[in-house]
Amino acid sequence: MVYKGIYHLFYQYNPKGAVWGNIVWAHSTSTDLVNWTPHAVAIYPSQPSDINGCWSGSATILPGGKPAILYTGIDPKNSQVQNLAVPKNLSDPYLTEWIKSPKNPLMQPTAQNQINASSFRDPTTAWLGPDKKWRVIIGSKINRQGLAVLYKSKDFVNWVESPTPLHSAKDNGMWECPDFYPVLVTGQNGVDAFLNGPSVKHVLKISLDDTKHEYYTIGSYDRVKDIYTPDKGSVESDSGLRYDYGKYYASKTFFDGVKNRRILMGWMNESSIAADDIKKGWAGVHAIPRKIWLAKSGKQLIQWPVAEIEKQRANHVSLPSKLLKGGSVIEISGVAAAQADVDISFKISDFEKAEVLKPSWTNPQLLCSQKGASVKGSLGPFGLLVLASKNLKENTAVFFRIFKGQNKYVVLMCSDQSRSSLNQDNDKTTYGAFLNVDPLHQKLSLRSLIDHSIVESFGGGGKACITARVYPTLAINNDAHLYVFNNGSKAVKIAKLDAWSMKTAKIN
Amino acid sequence: MKNIISLALLHLALSLTFLPVSHGRGANLIETTCQSTPFYNLCVRTLQSDPRSSSADVSGLAHIGADKLKAKATAALGQITGLLKVAKDPKLKMALRDCVDYYNAIIKYDIPVAIEAVAKGDPKFGVQGANDAANEADACERRFKNQPNSRISASNKAVHDLSAVVASIVQLLL
Predict the structure, then answer these.
(1) Is residue B17 very low, low, confident or very high in pLDDT (cuts 50, 70, 90)?
(2) Which residue of B has its CA nearest to A73?
(3) Is A152 at the interface with chain B, CB within 8 A?
(4) Measured on CA atoms in the order A31, A34, A37, A43, is the torsion positive or negative?
(5) Which residue in A425, A426, A429 has the most chain B C-beta atoms within 10 A of its own C-beta, making it the best mutation to test that interface?
(6) Which of A161, A266, A327, A491 has CB 3.0 to 4.6 Å from A251, enough for a Cys bridge?
(7) pLDDT for the residue numbered B21
(8) Which of A371, A366, A375, A480 is nearest to A420 (CA)?
């Protein structure tokens, strides 16, 4: 959230170890979304309604600019309940202390409401309806049906459950971290109020407990009946549209009134084994905040790292436009390859020999796993080798492959971690996504932000995002290298290439 | 005399009616639960060896599995530290020390995390913990690639397999 011009991030934190447990609300602030200052823990177990844990929740800015936090507490019976906390001192711009409502829990599973006591969590940011009542949704499930339970309140303290959920879906499993928000139909600005009308659409994002992937739909919100209906053709499952096709979960957006944009914050946990996390003393990181907005087509969201991250750029290296012949590997020197920002765009002109996309190839992750960077192709694989050792024994490949589809060319974007580290203890799963870009008429762009064990990649200007966690043993610090490669038989043109070293930010 | 016999017969009848249903519902839940794990026999054997299993629900079975896993991992750790005491070869010592770290992660972190996650209703962290335990056992086994040690191998396999069983049981709670 943002309060008096200062950004606040609250996050699940275990003060006792580098694994999940003893969860509290840790708290950091920033003026630029890049440099962060930690503060005292904001919310920790102190009432019966959260004595066994202070789990996820969201902040809502009430009229008058007053923040309020609704969060899930674990009570003495290990039931999941919803609690309220407000700042102790509104004139403290860092909002370091929070006080809890003596009425907690405000929402809880009862014999009457039949809510599943171990599947009722993660209240989202509340919004005002036309009747001036607040609405909030909480993730839940009934057997295998995921749902967003809806509660309404006049005063933010007394909440009444709505007879129908905001939305539900079959066979999805538990809905975690639901996020429901309006987006403008045109432009990149954010919007806060849940207005109706042709200028606004609504987005519902669900984090799926079963698969640890998040998917979203775009649709319409009936403000009177409090029902959300995804647009026709929406896929409501793990196969739907994701914010990120890699390691990215439990995300949440907020409206940034300072710069009139909607910001997405996401969590990336480790792909290493616990013993390594314990050794290094930490586990879990947050992605670079992303601006998020509706694409012109209205059919998907677009994300892009906030502009503020560009302040960290230094040592600009630029390659002139050149042809990247099949089989070539070109080093991009002059940047700190372990801490870099690379932005490259390709232009393809000869589509004759593009491999045909088999109709059964519908799972991009599977396709990327079977056709990794080392599998030669025709138009592709071409892209970047990041966190690469000099002999390429270790490398993380982020690349494209172009296929001939039914009526158009299909672009597959992959993040191949299979050779990212000689350490066999890591999870080196490959990630993939189909990128909705027409390579016939548009340039194919790829931006990767590399930060030691994190690679955040954005295809097509943010139409598909893939985040990976890697742990090279050779390609570290000054021994990390950055290359552009083309392991296909056809040449592709590098239309533009820019790379920068990234200055270290002030992090927790 | 007749009354005493009647009373005895009545007592016997009542006792038989209230015998624990160890071959009824409890056993069936163990069987169906274990069917969704990759090591059915190991799963059934392990759960049935604990008296709590006959009246446990799936959460309870997961907890029992985690307890049994902790015992197995603790035994393996004892074996490893014992070998470390008498080891002379520096490469062997290094491998054994790594294994101590892996097994400490299982005992001190993975299993308590799994138990807390199941108890509080966020089973995905339990699945993660149990899967990590299997990975830690694998990591230890990899340390002996060039110097096979059958004593630890058996323990690593036992811990790996039981971890996979526990992960599958917790998965049912998602």
Answers:
(1) very low
(2) B120
(3) no
(4) positive
(5) A425
(6) A266
(7) 43
(8) A480
Residue A376 CA to residue A330 CA, distance in Å, equals 17
Residue A82 with chain B: CB contacts under 8 Å: none
Classify A62 as helix, strand or coil: strand
Residue with the two structure tokens 């993380």: A396
Inter-chain touch A20–B113, beta carbons under 8 Å = yes
Give chain A's residues under pLDDT 50: none
The verdict on B57 touching A (C-beta cutoff 8 Å) is no
Is the confidence at residue B20, as pLDDT, over 60?
no
User: Nearest CA to B117 among A52, A27, A123, A72?
Assistant: A52
Mean pLDDT of chain A: 97
Query: Does the beta-carbon distance from A118 to B113 stay under 8 Å?
Result: no
* Residue type present at position B52: R
Condensed to tens digits (0 to 9), the pLDDT of residues A407-417 reads: 999 999 999 99
CA–CA separation, A141 and B107 (whole Å): 32
Only one residue has tokens 């589809």, namely: A405
Does position B18 have pLDDT exceeding 50, yes or no? no
Task: Indicate the residue type of A221.
Answer: Y
Q: Are A460 and A444 in contact (CB under 8 A)?
A: yes
* B161 pLDDT higher than 50: yes
Which secondary-structure segment (H or E) carries B90?
helix B90-104
Give the pLDDT of residue B127. 97
Distance CA(B41)–CA(A438), nearest Å, equals 53
Question: Considering only CA atoms, which of A449, A206, A226, A459 is closest in space to residue A341?
Answer: A449
What is the DSSP track for A112-139? TT---TTSEE-----EE-TTS-EEEEEE
Sign for the CA dihedral angle at B106, B108, B113, B116 comes to positive
> pLDDT, tens digit, for every residue of A193-221?
777 778 999 999 999 999 999 999 999 99
For chain A, what is the largest distance between any 2 Cα atoms, rounded to a whole number of angstroms? 70
A365-379 per-residue burial string, b: 16 or more CB within 10 A, e: under 16:
bebbbebbbeeebbb
Peptide bond into A67 cis (omega under 30): no
User: Measured between CB atoms, does B82 come within 8 Å of chain A?
Assistant: no
Helix (H) or strand (E) holding B124, with range, is helix B123-142
Nearest CB among B109, B116, B117 relative to A274 is that of B109
Measured CA to CA, the distance from residue A412 to residue A313 in angstroms comes to: 29
Comparing C-alpha atoms, which of A90, A89, A88, A112 is closest to residue A98? Answer: A88
Task: Name every residue whose Cβ is closer than 8 Å to that of residue A36 and which is 6 or more positions away in sequence.
Answer: A9, A28, A29, A30, A505, A506, A507, A508
- Nearest CB to B135 within list A21, A121, A425: A425
Polymer length of chain A: 508
Reported ipTM: 0.93
Tokens 């066994």, residue? Answer: A52
- Integer Cα distance of A83 and A103 in angstroms: 8
How many angstroms separate the CA atoms of A83 and A52, rounded? Answer: 13
Instruction: Sort out which chain A residues have CB atoms less than 8 A from B142's CB and list them.
Output: 424-425
Closest-CA distance of chain A to residue B174, Å: 6
Name the closest residue on chain A to residue B174, using Cα atoms: A210
Residue A75 DSSP class? -
Query: For chain B, how far is it from start to end, CA to CA, in angstroms?
Result: 60
Would you say A325 and A491 are in contact if contact means Cβ atoms under 8 Å apart? yes
List the single residue in A with minimal CA-CA distance to B127: A210
Q: Which of A118, A247, A279 to mutate to test the interface with B (most CBs of B within 10 A)?
A: A118
CB count within 10 Å of CB A8 equals 19
